[in-house]
Design goal:
The chain is α+β, with helices and mostly antiparallel strands and about 200 residues long. About 35% of the residues lie in helices and about 15% in strands. It is built from 5 helices and 7 strands. The strands form 3 sheets. It has a 3-stranded antiparallel sheet, with no helix packed on it. Strand 4 and strand 5 form a beta hairpin. The termini are far apart. About 10% of the residues have low confidence.
């Protein structure tokens, strides 16, 4: 009987001491947090901040794709992810593209290449626009306009080739131009501004 009482007292004492030790440890932890918090900062707030700062991010990714530009330098993208975002950004913003005008707008036959004309390269402008009718100028390679072509015909039929081809004669090496009010056929390189009555300008490339 005495042995049972001693055993019971030992169990009660061990549990009591264990609870007291645990309580002391918790009090010490809270006291340390209070001492660490400046100006009496709330302990719960400190714990919440600690929990947030310790959240794992195994992939190391930036959650917002718009922030991926922070990974780029002044010379361009520096990683595969940045390249994909950079290309996507450019495709969604075509208005940021820089357009250029011909230094001198030229007309020319099929022997003259078309495109942007610069100070070093003379090309037949492929993007002419008329200032009178405000329509793009259309080109027909290896054709020449008939002398009977007039303003009314162009106004009603341009730029449909099937409707205007009855006024076009096949001539290899020539190139015919027309908007909805003017027309011209050329074989050699010629400056637009020197062509009489033409009010065509480069519409930018």
């Amino acid at each position: 009987m005495a042995d049972d009482i001693d055993q019971l007292l030992d169990e009660v004492e061990s549990k009591y001491l264990e609870n007291v030790e645990t309580r002391k440890q918790k009090c010490s932890a809270v006291e340390r947090k209070k001492n660490r918090a400046p100006n009496g900062l709330n302990v719960d707030l400190e714990e919440a901040i600690d929990d947030i700062c310790e959240l794992p991010n195994p992939e190391g990714e930036i959650p917002d794709k718009r922030l991926q530009t922070l990974q780029t330098t002044s010379t361009g993208p520096t990683s595969r992810r940045d390249c994909q975002y950079y290309c996507q950004l450019n495709s969604q913003e075509p208005h940021l593209k820089a357009y250029k005008s011909c230094l001198t707008a030229y007309l020319g036959g099929t022997a003259v290449s078309t495109g942007l004309s610069s100070s070093l390269t003379q090309r037949a402008c492929s993007n002419l626009r008329c200032l009178s009718c405000d329509f793009n100028v259309t080109m027909f390679d290896n054709y020449c306009w008939d002398q009977s072509t007039d303003y009314l015909f162009l106004r009603n039929n341009m730029p449909d080739f099937q409707r205007v081809k009855k006024k076009l004669s096949h001539k290899p090496g020539w190139r015919s131009y027309a908007c909805q009010c003017q027309h011209r056929s050329v074989r050699d390189l010629a400056e637009v501004r020197k062509c009489e009555d033409l009010k065509w300008v480069c519409g930018k490339h």
